[in-house]
Amino acid sequence: MKKLLLLSALLIFACSSDDSNDNNNQNSIIGNWQLSCICEDGLPVEGNSLTVCELQSNMTFLESNTGNYELYDEDGFEGDCIMESIDLTWNQESSISYSITAYGDEPGSSLGIIDGNTLSINDNGIDVVFVKN
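RE: above sequence
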């Protein structure tokens, strides 16, 4: 009888442990994030609708607290897309917030907030929004 109670207790703890891992993974920054919007107050910034090239921009965050931002834009001459690759590092600040540091031409840090499959990075009042792939 004691063995049966012990086994039941272990199964209960194992199940509750899995639930907490699911919650942690839900707000995890690790993975690939696709640019979806440059927004202000939840709406696309007027005059700044994303081009076909810009919509290819994405961030990838690795478990090693590093990552990469592939920023796409039009070259201005032939309408081709050009890509700039920017190295990133990240640190978790809370269960939903992450400090993200970019090491491109203009190095700097920003705070990213995750809500489900959406990552919002505020840049001087403008939200750069990514969706997790």
